[in-house]
Design goal:
The chain has one helix and eight strands. It is mainly beta. It has a six-stranded antiparallel sheet with strand order 3-4-8-5-6-7, with no helix packed on it. A two-stranded antiparallel sheet has the order 1-2.
């Protein structure tokens, strides 16, 4: 397992900020993202239904197949034999539905063919 340096200071996306002399410690991405290695898988993201949540095509979702999904969890579901990534929500009658993070995609109120398979615990992206 490789550990990389994590700076304890937050990096501002607005104004530049002062960096201290040694505001860092080691972090393992494996330990940070993977709570249970035996039940964790990764899934490549396709399409643009979650772009407002910061999830883009070609990102990799880190998924825990043993976590129990709750309302507002980001989940991988299967609907009509197709996998999809959406937010799990419940309406005012407590019926579950799937919500995209892009207004171009509609809410999905499934029939009995919906299965919530996995809970997404993280998303990673490589830029270069």
């Amino acid at each position: 397992m490789t550990a990389i340096t994590l700076f304890e200071e937050w990096v501002s996306a607005w104004f530049s900020s002062f960096v201290g002399e040694d505001d860092s410690y080691k972090i393992s991405l494996e330990q940070y993202l993977i709570e249970r290695p035996s039940t964790t898988i990764s899934v490549r993201i396709k399409w643009e239904s979650m772009i407002w949540a910061g999830i883009l095509p070609w990102d990799i979702a880190i998924v825990d197949t043993a976590k129990i999904p709750f309302s507002w969890n980001l989940v991988i579901a299967i609907l009509d034999w197709v996998y999809t990534i959406k937010f799990l929500q419940k309406d005012n009658k407590w019926r579950p539905f799937l919500k995209a993070a892009n207004k171009e995609y509609w809410d999905i109120y499934p029939n009995e063919d919906l299965s919530i398979y996995w809970v997404v615990v993280g998303v990673i992206r490589k830029y270069v």
